[in-house]
Design goal:
- The structure is a single chain.
- By secondary structure, this protein is mainly α.
- The chain has one domain.
- Helix content is 85%, strand content 0%.
- The longest helix has 42 residues.
- The radius of gyration is 21 Å and the shape is elongated.
- The model has no long low-confidence stretch (mean pLDDT 82).
């Protein structure tokens, strides 16, 4: 399950990063039209970096906790005899 979650999140994050790079290219192309384009894209890049790292941390944390829960359930149900 880890690899499926990891792959889906990587595809989602890559899509967002491509959108950011397109926005940065447009920001440099049209930087003479507005003073706010460059600072906003820098802030978006910092926020996207933090969200990407936090998302990968969640993927690995949630996946490891699910395997622990599943193992605990198997241990409790396999020991019973009726």
């Amino acid at each position: 399950m880890l690899w499926i979650t990891f792959g889906l999140y990587t595809a989602f994050a890559a899509t967002l990063w491509v959108m950011l790079f397109v926005a940065r290219m447009h920001a440099y192309k049209f930087k003479n039209y507005s003073f706010h384009i460059e600072p906003v894209t820098k802030i978006l890049m910092i926020a996207l970096t933090m969200l990407t790292l936090l998302g990968y941390w969640f993927v690995f944390t949630i996946d490891s906790s699910e395997s622990t829960i599943g193992q605990t359930l198997r241990e409790t149900t396999s020991g019973r005899t009726f």
